[in-house]
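Spend some time on this chain, tokens included, and walk me through the fold:

. . .
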Amino acid sequence: MTFALDRRTLLALGAGGVLAPFLALGDAAAQQAGDHIANATRAGFGDIPDFQVGGAEQIAMLLYPGFTALDLVGPHYMFACMMGATVHLVTTERSLRPVASDLGLAIAPTTTMRRCPRVLDILFVPGGTFGTIDAMKNGAAIDFVRDRASQSRHVTSVCTGSLILGKAGLLAGKRATSHWMTRDVLAEFGAIPVNERVVTDGNVTTGAGVSAGLDFGLALLAALRGDNYARAIQLQAEYAPAPPFNAGSTTTAPDVVTNAMRNLFTPFAAAAREAARSS
């Protein structure tokens, strides 16, 4: 293993922000912390089978106005925890101003569509509601997704982000999933809707609604770095879900809750279907 212990690499090695306090102390403390992590990695993980420590993956994650933040943040955590990987937060807008999510949380992009690398290991598209509908109608954004997908090892989405993949013509004949409210809309693109948390068909991987992005992210980690790397990051994140209610799907939520939510999202589902059918 080779570790170039500059400050940027230390940030990558300190996945999840572990090194932030050390970096604040200056270069000497950062170097010491980096040496410790490098030595601990060699000693602790060197004998674990199926564990690829380093890589140089190029990952592009699309930001468009009105995206759902958790669709992006969960997978981003997983991707950014790959030592050596570079994550590009790509805005659909002209400037690098923060892009507001559907609930107002703004994320600062790192690059534009024009400047994003063409050859990628992962192209990722988050979902949303009416912001996603607008993105489906954004010709430049759809052209970007289609172009980068042609040069990507993994073409991916979470939640209604799969509608954007479909609009770009990337789901024809593919098994795919989406948020439960729009899963059936995928058939409009020639896809085969599947009721699963994470669905992989060829080089296309789609995740179901919002929280499925965590499962999705671990699946991509395993595909790129091996199962034990994914297990290590799952442990780091302490991802051991034990929700207080068993209402995370239409098959387990009470009918009164499911029906109320279905009625709430009916206008969006209709708009998504219309956008899918429009040329």
Remarks:
- Residues 1-20 have pLDDT under 50 and may be disordered.
- The CA atoms of residues 244 and 253 lie 12 Å apart.
